[in-house]
Target: Protein ZIP4 homolog
Amino acid sequence: MVLICKPYTTRSKASHPLSDPFYSQMETFGGAHVESLIKIKPKLSDIHSDDARVVKDLYHITSLAQSFSEQWLKSNKKSHLADALDQEGVNLWNASGLFRQGSDGNCRPIIAALRLAGFRLMEAGLEAKPTVEGLLHILQIACKTGITLSEVGNNESAACVLASAAKYEEALRNMDDPEGQHLHARAQVTIVYFSSRMEVAWRENNEGLATFMADKITGSTPPSMIKLQLALLSMRDREVLVAKLLDIGKSILRACAQSGKPLAEGERAHDALRWLKKAFQIIEPLECSATPELLELKRSVLRSLARGYFLASSQDPENLVRAEAALEEVIATMDTSVVESASSELQQLRWMKLAVVKRRKAGDTVLLPEISASDIELSKPGASVCLTLMWQYGDRHYHASRWVEAVDWFMCGTHAIFSCLGASSLSKCFRKAAMCQLQQKEYARAMATVRRCPQNGATTRYVAFLVAVRQGLEDDATRAVKEMVEAPDFDRRMLLLACRLSHDSDMKGLLLSVLIHLLDTLNFRKNEDSVTESMTLIRCIIRLTLKLLGEPGANVRSLVRTLLNYFKHAKSLVESVKHESATMLIRDISWLWRTAYNCAIDGCSNWENQGEQVSDAFDTARELLEIYISRTLTEVEPSAYLYIANASFAATSGRVILARERISQHDVPTDKSAETLLAEIKGCRARLSDVLSKVPADSQPQVYSFLHVLRVFAVETAARVEDWAYVLATIKVGCIAAENGMEPYSQEQEATRTDDQALVTFEAFCDILWENKACPVNGTDCPLLPNILIHAHSSSPLVLYEALEGILHACLTNSHLSLEKFSRWLRSICTILLSQGTVADRSKAIQYMEQASAVLEEHGNLVENENPLYPVDERLWLLSTAYNTGVECLQCVGPDSASLADEAKRWFECSTVLCRFAPDGKLRAEKISKAYTELLTRYAGPRTRSPA
Model:
């Protein structure tokens, strides 16, 4: 039984099929649906049931489920029946697996109907906004359903299902996956979708749509995207895809053979070649020798290609050369240990090759039997003399541009009679022949000849590189360069020639690979003479990488990684040379830091989902600039220090923003990563403080603003790891300067005291700490104290209190008031102070109350949209708190507590003043005065006078 696992959903599924609650729910949108399921359920266990009747019932369920899906989609609401519908769909789909395994092949209509009904029910139970996993699952189910329906000839239903699949594919394509968690699954199901559409269209004789879908798989997107998609597929998926493309190509070839019309044969053969080339494009990069089935599939593709080229040669004679190359490649994959006379396949291939070379009217040397044993044995010196003569004749023809004759002479040298000279001589003959074929522009034959070389040395790979470049096959050429460099007989001069050829052919990706390999060869040379050459190569690599980044369809992630690696490589190179020797590189260093800086700025908008790399680029630019400043012999422009500040701040702020994004996505950073980020913020603050005096005077406010923001970042990150000591120390730095106008400890403190941004900084502190439930507050449970403040023991540091106090002083010192926020912060800090219950804390609290009176005196009449800027509820809170605190002080008055009576008097006087700014203030003042007199008589005696 085929089971469908559904890890994409967290909904609880009904564990029992067709339960009573399900029936009652289904009645809400159609009792016929229930009746059909009731009738079908028992029949599913009996394979010999009335197939036609079951199929009819299943199609009825399909119609009901589809209509139900359309209804709730229009309502834009999720149905409460979704879970039950989804489970029933899974049950029906699994039942199709039972029929598939237990039937004798006559139950295909039932299987198709079960899959269709199961798909439509699962579709009806799909989430209103499906997750990536949900879309992956439903798209795969839709594709399999469409194929099954097409196989039984139900083309109308197949087209309808695949139309639904198209919507799911579009939704999946538009879903974000920044971390690439579903990259493999998305590539797999997308290819399955395209291949399903292709297969169904071909069955319906819609060759245009089938070709379009095939191009989607292999040729409609940029080459890098094609390669990425196909590389993510499993070996089995690629094998199945190749088999489908091969079957379509072979079916066209069979039609060509049956037509008997040479002209039509040539035209249709070209159509077949399009499909066969796509199959070869997918299977060619694979290592087929490890799997016998895959190797046989590749041989089948090559044989069909050879046949297609042969049939298409009536219109293009060059196809005969391609057919011969394909046959030679098939022969090269044959097991040479098999006796030739006993291998019917090998004999057939040779007959096919003979037909090809005869049609192209090849010379006698080509028609002679070839990879065969000879009774004649030559001595090694004799064989060497003969082979040397053949090479001389071949070279004469080559230099006289008689390429065909040259190939014949060189290929004669591959005869078995010369096997005593070893594999190196045989490889040399094949290479010389390939070079002649390259001059003839017979690229397919040249590549096939190179593949026959028994030794895969550097020279052989260089010839393969030349052939690939002439054909415009950049990937093949890049692979040949890599293999050439890894060969034991590699000569660096080959790379220099490859570099020139890559540049002339305008293959930027290939040129980049060659330059990188050239640089790697220089790393083995220890003398300092290579430093200048290495730096030149690094600059070329960086320039070329930037050009590739600007092209459509560029692999940004890989190219950015290359770019940063070689900026860092240049930095390491400069650091490794002596200080006095670095002066000859000073212009290179200047170019490097400016380029890195501009790249980082460009990356902010163009390097999508590469936030960490953008920060790395800014860091690298700053490090290179610092090296430039330390190594240059001339005076540095003050603006250079501003660039250090800009780059350092941009790198740090980028990482802070990235950490916030991860937290918002519930990817909470570890304490270690947060501590690393905090250390970076500290380093950035220190760096900016050091360069502050060196930047131009008109740019210093900008650096001040950076320091303010970095202090906020530091408090935010330190609060995340609950480093409250550092949080408190950071806040106090600004509080001391802001409160007393004292001489600051550093230029950063000067910024806090004089800059208008100080208010915003302290406000950010309070917002961060207010939202952090772990922030310690020195307070006890108090009705006036917000719950969010009560989280710690009385011995905890006054972190939030210090922040609140700082913002109040910043407001007052800078004369920059937001009355609403001022009232909110003042209320909070007074609540904390009064909750302590000590004389000293109350003394501070009444000072803040009196300060509020002064603010109200000056700004209390300001209104906006007919509402006071200093909120009325805050004014009433000040009044009631001052009065209640005065009452509490009087209640504690005793024979020896005259100070409490004086304190109470001060509170009542404060409340009386505050009455002036509250509604019905005069009446409230009279009541407070009367109440104070009565309380004073009761608790303090007649010696204390009432407030004025």
Summary: Residues 380-451 form one domain. The mean pLDDT is 78. Strands lie at 863-864, 867-868.
